[in-house]
Write a structure and sequence with these properties.
The protein is mainly alpha-helical. It is flat and about 85 Å long. Helix 1 crosses helix 5 and helix 2 runs antiparallel to helix 5. The chain has a domain of about 150 residues.
Length: about 250
């Protein structure tokens, strides 16, 4: 009788241990399956994005090749030369106009005030600084005020400089001609089979990417809902177990 009683007790104990173990295994299996879905969806997004990036890169390369071919034609090659010349002239005119301004006494004085203010601000932020808060505030205000004033002086100097104005007009004209050249590149691309094929593939790839992102979002939402449900189940199970234990005692 003692042996039978011991065996019955052991079987009962094993059965009590087995039940939660099975529940834990099922819960773990569900989480693994859900995580697998999320990981799979994430990989699909990464692949779709890589496909989009590659196709965009391929199209850029084709466009660069076609653009070089168009601009190599005599009429457009001349436009390129004019544009580079105009840009060089404009840059030189800007530098000359600003150099003349920076030699003026009023600009030099404002620049010196700003430099001194910058030193005070730097010293204030140094550990152990003896600069007062009032001096720091004054220097900070000088930095801002003089900065805006100097920018306005530079802008006015460029507007009033006749050589800069002339160079700007030439640069605008050259840029307008370049727009015509770029439009010819677009025309040429319409007849380029490689570019058009890549364009169609890119549209498909973008659609696939959007679909993959939607599926990933759905998988993550399902995982979150599953985690919330599992948490509720554990709370309910814990509450039931506590009540049963009290009743048994």
């Amino acid at each position: 009788m003692t042996i039978r009683k011991s065996l019955s007790t052991a079987v009962l104990a094993l059965s009590m241990v087995a039940v939660p173990a099975m529940g834990q295994q099922s819960s773990s299996s569900n989480r693994t399956n859900q995580n697998t879905q999320s990981q799979t969806a994430g990989k699909a997004v990464a692949k779709a994005q890589a496909d989009v990036n590659k196709l965009q890169s391929d199209m850029t390369k084709v466009r660069s090749k076609v653009r070089a071919q168009v601009l190599a034609k005599p009429e457009w090659a001349q436009v390129m030369t004019e544009k580079k010349t105009a840009e060089t002239t404009l840059d030189a005119a800007r530098k000359n106009a600003l150099a003349a301004l920076r030699n003026k006494p009023e600009y030099k004085a404002m620049f010196k005030e700003r430099e001194d203010a910058q030193q005070i601000v730097t010293q204030f932020n140094t550990p152990g600084s003896q600069i007062s808060q009032a001096d720091f505030d004054k220097a900070s205000n000088t930095l801002i005020t003089n900065g805006y004033a100097m920018k306005k002086m530079e802008s006015d100097a460029l507007k009033e400089d006749p050589k800069f104005a002339e160079a700007t007009t030439q640069a605008d004209a050259a840029n307008a001609k370049m727009k015509e050249a770029e439009s010819q590149v677009d025309v040429a691309l319409k007849d380029d089979q490689e570019y058009q094929n890549a364009s169609k593939q890119l549209d498909t790839a973008k659609t696939s990417l959007n679909t993959a992102k939607t599926q990933l979002a759905q998988a993550r939402q399902q995982e979150e809902q599953a985690r919330e449900q599992q948490a509720k189940s554990r709370q309910q199970s814990g509450g039931s177990g506590g009540a049963g234990g009290t009743y048994g005692r």
